[in-house]
User: Fold this.
Amino acid sequence: MTAVGESIATITDVRIAGPGSEFLPDDGPFDVFLEGGLIADIAPRGALPARGAVLAGDGGWLVPGLWDHHVHTMQWALVSQRTPLGHATSAAHAASLMGDAVVLDGRRVGTGFRDAFWEDRPTLALLDTATGDTPTYLINADVHSVWLNTAALRREGFEPDGIGILREEPAFEISRRLNAVDAATGDRLVRQMATDAAARGVVGLVDLDMAWNEEAWARRTRDGFDTLRVEFGIYPDHLARALAEGLQTGEVARGAASDLARVGPLKVITDGSLGTRTAACSHAYPGDPRNHGVLTVSPESLVELMTAATAAGLECAIHAIGDIANSNALDAYALTQATGTIEHAQLVAHADIPRFARLGVGASVQPEHAIDDRDLTDTIWAGQTAQPYPLAALAAAGANLLLGSDAPVSRLDPWAAIASAVFRTRDDRDAWQPEQALNAAVALAASTRGGSAAPAVIAPGAVADLVVCEADPLAADERALRGMRVAATLLGGRVTHVA
Assistant:
């Protein structure tokens, strides 16, 4: 009986799908032999004797290990302790839900509301009436705004203004404070998050928590964390420290007990979001002719940050949602010769789409957001002339696509991301802008470490980060992808999940 933690030497009776399968002589089934954390050989089923510990594939499909390229790890881990608000149909409904919410550490915290869909508006009086004197925080699904009651505002040092909504940097600061739980609690929740991710075939993630992440990940590895590979981001507030201490993208976290935790990119948030109506766009938002969103970092400052990071050996991950923000980010990549990604790329001018490939800039995108936001996009962005969620257009232009969740904005589930990328729908609705759908092979490749242009492969010599799933992901329909059953996940040949 295969167990979590066991190092596998032979995977028997699997069909191979995704990157690497194109080099095989037929559709299999195959036996795959592992050694030293790498794939050593692939042979027709039964052609060579099994050796060492055996994982029975039972006719399943073997794919490269999956990555989520954009996760706010601690905030996602803490969702399990917070009141879900995604089903709230109005501000009054959300306030009522929080009035009944569990009090933890002297406060109530809810997450996932979408006020852009509400007919009524959040007010301080409404929330105070429902929640009283207990500090109460409601975090928007996009994390770019937080609704607080009077007790929470005063606790955090803000004067009540009649509404209680904080946006952009003040909202991020509230999230940072709420995320600052004690290490023992936080690490326990992160371990559970990682276990859940491994059960969905995840072998790695890019952690973009708004914190100094190196110490936390080094501590977790010393305490035995061994479920995922992690690349952690650095924010501008910590850039000077990172430069002074010589951190470089790809290096192992200092003080770590393994090589699973590594330095990732400089993360810069340059504009707002669609749901909060702060994404920087070329055309104004409906009914608000002066509102084109906000640039939270000027083009000049962005170039300075990226220049400093690049000179020190750090890649970049630039948050850009609106078309103006995407243009600025691409301009900055051109000027600085930085390497890295644009995070989100939700609204991109047609002329900018081919620039991703020309500049070698990865498009780190979250396909579930397109489905979550389809009605907002058709209303709030109806007057925009740029292309929303241009997945197929970016792929056709040669851009490297890297899929993720932006958890907690959407669930950390690569199969959901793949389903939304391929089928552009959920809940039996017609496909939304189906011309921007990816084919399944591209979506699967984009869900591996290197992305669609340089995916992880199943081939001799490749790292044995592998997933056995019970259906062919390249032939599955939308429901089957979302419900994909993962039989086993291996990290460097070691079992991190087994069904």
